[in-house]
Amino acid sequence: MTDIEDLATLAAQFDHRNVRAPSSLEEVVSSGNCMGCGLCESIAGSEFLEMKVLPPKQRMRPVFHKALTPEIAAKALAACPGAQVGGIPGTRASSPYQASGEVAVRARTGWTPSTGLEAFVGKVVSIQKGYASDPETRFKAAAAGGLTTLASHLIDSKQVDFVVHVKACALYSDVSTQGSKLSFSSAEVFEGKGSRYGPVAPLKSLEDALKLNRPFAVVAKPCDINAVRNMAKVDARVDQLCKCLMTLSCGTYADNVCLDKFLTHHDMKHSEVEEFRWRGHGCPGDCPYVRTSDGREAAYDYVDFWFENGKESGPLTYQWRCKMCSDFIGYQADVVVMDCWPKGAPERRKEITDARKHEWDGWVLVIARSERGQAVVDSAKDAGVLTLGPAEGREVLETQPHQARRAASQLIRRMAHGSKYPLTQLEPNAAMRVAKWALDADFVDEVMNTGAPAPTIPDCAEQLRSILPAGEAWAEAILKMPDRHIAYHLDNYKGTLRRLERGDANETYA
Length: 510
Prior knowledge:
The chain has helices at residues 4-18, 25-30, 39-44, 70-79, 116-121, 135-140, 146-156, 186-191, 206-211, 222-234, 237-241, 256-265, 302-307, 320-323, 371-382, 394-399, 401-408, 410-418, 428-439, 441-448, 460-467, 473-479, 483-501, and strands at residues 49-54, 59-64, 84-85, 92-93, 108-109, 126-132, 162-165, 181-183, 216-219, 242-248, 273-277, 289-292, 297-299, 335-339, 364-368, 386-390, 425-426.
């Protein structure tokens, strides 16, 4: 067997056999697999556990008050995106996790990627490029106002009664904005505009939304969308009532302690802040921006904060689950809206060139991944609230190179993590996707051309051979790649182990 489909199946089998998923919600947290979505509180109820922002990193985590019943514990774990990541809805694969290590029959329905690039872009009904037609929304909301516009349009067109999302431009210390925001009008959606680069529990009130027994949509991070898809498998109300899942391309977010350092550096206190923004007022806008009640202002350029390690707010630190994410551009969503800066980065506002000045107005890629997602995008375009033109799948790679680098190294990093600690389990289609990212030499080659070159490592093939499992055809395929590919995989394996050794995946709370 030499084709990528069979090799990816074998790699998926290996991942399933050798990566142990967390066996409880407590272990999801302690092993660094929690991202704080809040779905467990929604399922269990606040008398059993509550989402809280916890020191020292100020991460959103469940605080357990009393033992869950076995039934509730099982349901919460089955829905938890820290325990498992699903594949692409509507694309079914015969499970490659079959006895005797034999390759499963390759029965497929729907879409199946044949290359690493196709697997990276994901299932696509259409890709378009554009912006919110309303100038105020385009300027004030994040990412050209794409998600704000779609959410508002769904309500205005009566396709849904409300939208589950979060209030974006708020300090994490504002307890009233730490959970879900249910908006029943476009004005309420607009009030929550912007980005939320920090812990928030958008699914904390999902049960409340379901109890209303009214059609709704969800706007949240890709991992939160994963949680809703998981929830649909254990609660039929989700598919009956949730009419659209919308997300962004997520490049992770820094721990809230980094924001604390920003405020301290500028001699500001949480209690003094009157206005706070992570993004918006231009694309991308300042990141962050703070204005106090006495009129003092502080801000960083987006490039300085994210590409210069937070400047005085740094070094930026991140929760481990983000580092190990395998669904960063919304493979399970109906609609994805993502920034489309060339090579993945905007220019500094004060240094922006004439050729790229138009980017400040806001442009995004809009991907419809399902027929219902396409219907929503078409409806918004026909109503004139989104201005859209054609785009191509390759633009996802060209404008999201940081995500492509995460993709190509995902398989080997999972091997490193799985050798030490429990890790989010991948359902068959997700595991196959991850394997194809690593096994397609052409894709890995393109990825490596987007960033810093792989380090020169003497005898890298011998070192990697000692790490990869003997007798596995997929491992042999990787070892036959060019030396720079092998060095890339080896460097990511060793880097993951170093981070695990310093405790990045360990979380313990009193």
